[in-house]
Amino acid sequence: MAKNSEIKLIGTAASPFVNRVQFVLHLKSIEYEFIDENLASKSELLLKSNPVYKKVPVLIHANKPPIPESLIIIEYLDEIYPDIHPILPSDPSVRADNRFWANFIDTKFFPLFEELRRTPEKEGKEAIKKQLIEGSKLLEEAFVKFSNGKDYFGGDDVGYLDIVLGCFLGWTKFVEKHNEFKIIDEVRTPKLLEWTKRIWSHEALMDAIPRNETLMDFYMMLQINRPPRKATSS
Amino acid sequence: MYFNYQCFNIALRFLANVFLKTDKLYYNIYFAKLLRGDSAGGKVGARPSVCSPSVRIWRVLVCPDLAHSASFSKCTSSLTKEKSNEIKLLGTAASPFVNRVQFVLNLKSIEYEFVNENLACKSELLLTSNPVYKKVPVLLHANNPPLPESLIIIEYLDEIYPDIHPILPSDPLALADNRFWANYIDTKFFPMFEDLRRTPGKEEKEVIKKQMIEASKLLEEAFVKFSNGKAYFSGDNVGYLDVVLGCYLGWINFTEKHNEFKIINDDNRTPKLLEWTNRIWSHEAFKDVIPGDETLMNFYKMLQIYKPPRKA
């Protein structure tokens, strides 16, 4: 285990974006200090470290300026520790393709979860569920392409997209259970389903993905602080 | 029968370009409006649900939303001047995201073929190259898979041509900081422009203008930090953030003029950014890239039709 007490990670257990960084730090065997943040009452440290967005995760490395944004943090860690479990592939075209799908997951796929939570009407919710299902089909195709018959998006071992998507699995299961539908299922997304089992049992991720109870607490906080929109009158 | 319609349509567009002297995009808007029977009070942006067979056939001729529309791109693009190479860029002149990639290709002295795309009538090439988003720019490099998303394209070009005018810094921390601000510009700053256009009420517009002014102050601070007294975000030479923000200058000027306020061309609030904009405007690799007011106005009119302002 590479000792490095210079790294601090400001975050909260329920955030998949924070989980990503934890996953990478574990894969690279980097020790770090986890600073637990209460998002309903943000600390001075967080507000100073990320004044533009005021969000987690934020990585603080020694005396250097803090780094927010999970995907940016992952690339930074991969650049300063390139020899220990490289996360991004070295080929520029494959790197670009990985970045494209990470961007899709963050800007198109995952925002649908919050949209689903905040949409009040049943019809509106059904429309979003359909979009999530369409998104899952694209991700199944992407998985088949990237994995090329192997276990992970990264091939034989966990790579960038395994981390980027894998850290949403806690919320994916939560949303599936509370909305009674399947986003990842054995008929429509069989390869992704097999992949989720591997990710859940991966040593470096096991302690990072939060339990249902943690997610429920976070969900209740969101319902209070960012309640669902009011239904429009018919 | 359909082949004859296609030839007729191609000929018609060519004649429109030559005799009407209009940008083919504007021609499309002009005829599209004509087809819908729009007058000043007409509803634009939506296809009429009922129209006569002759109008429907005419509509198909002018702007077929069909798989064969790639022929238009190939035909019309041959009218413009391009250099053949193993790099092709699918794009449109009015898109700042496309301009970014052009800027980087120019800085790195890379020859490329520009494949002009009509966003009101997307080609088969674009739809198959970027099936997920169906947007420009898309970079086609030799036999590699097509590459969409301007920031991803820039990093790719910097990785395959690292020695010619490097765009991103090599230090991991500076790299992270550059990426952060590019993300801010694309996800927070620039979307406000479209929001401003689509917001109907005067008061609501004022709120957005205030947000844009606040954002400009953040960008001024960022410029001072990054430039550290030098001419550009990246120091002595143009770099990543100069490209990322610089390519919005056409739209920034356009928006300032049409909404009568200053965003970054303000010598009180953003003096350093203002000086920087003058340098960017006169930079050799940039000069032919940023579109003129007429091109932007044509694009603006197309947006007003296809993505009209929200109802008050």
Which key features would you list for this structure?
heterodimer; A: 234 residues; alpha+beta; Glutathione S-transferase Yfyf (Class Pi), Chain A, domain 2; four-stranded mixed β-sheet; 11 helices; globular; B: mainly alpha; Glutaredoxin; 3 domains; 4 strands; 55% helix
What does this structure look like?
The complex is a heterodimer of chains A (234) and B (312). Chain A has 234 residues and is an alpha+beta fold. Chain A has 2 domains: 7-80, 3-Layer(aba) Sandwich (Glutaredoxin); 92-223, Glutathione S-transferase Yfyf (Class Pi), Chain A, domain 2 (Up-down Bundle). Chain A is 55% helix and 6% strand. Chain A has 11 helices and 4 strands. In chain A, strands 2-1-3-4 form a 4-stranded mixed beta sheet, covered by helices on one side. The longest helix of chain A has 26 residues, at 122-147. In chain A, 38% of the residues are buried. The mean pLDDT of chain A is 93. Chain B is mainly alpha-helical and 312 residues long. Chain B folds into 3 domains: 5-81, no CATH class; 85-160, Glutaredoxin; 172-306, Glutathione S-transferase Yfyf (Class Pi), Chain A, domain 2 (Up-down Bundle), CATH 1.20.1050. Chain B is built from 14 helices and 4 strands. Chain B has helices at 2-20, 24-35, 53-62, 70-77, 96-107, 124-129, 150-160, 172-189, 191-198, 202-227, 240-246, 249-259, 271-281, 293-306, and strands at 87-91, 113-116, 138-141, 147-148. Chain B has a 4-stranded mixed beta sheet, with helices on both faces. In chain B, strand 3 and strand 4 (147-148) form a beta hairpin. In chain B, helix 8 packs parallel to helix 11 (240-246). Mean pLDDT of chain B is 80; it is low at 20-85. The A-B interface holds A 52, 61, 64-65, 67-69, 72-73, 75-76, 79-80, 92-93, 95-97, 99-100, 103-104, 138 and B 132, 141, 144-145, 147-149, 152-153, 155-156, 159-160, 172-173, 175-177, 179-180, 183-184, 218.
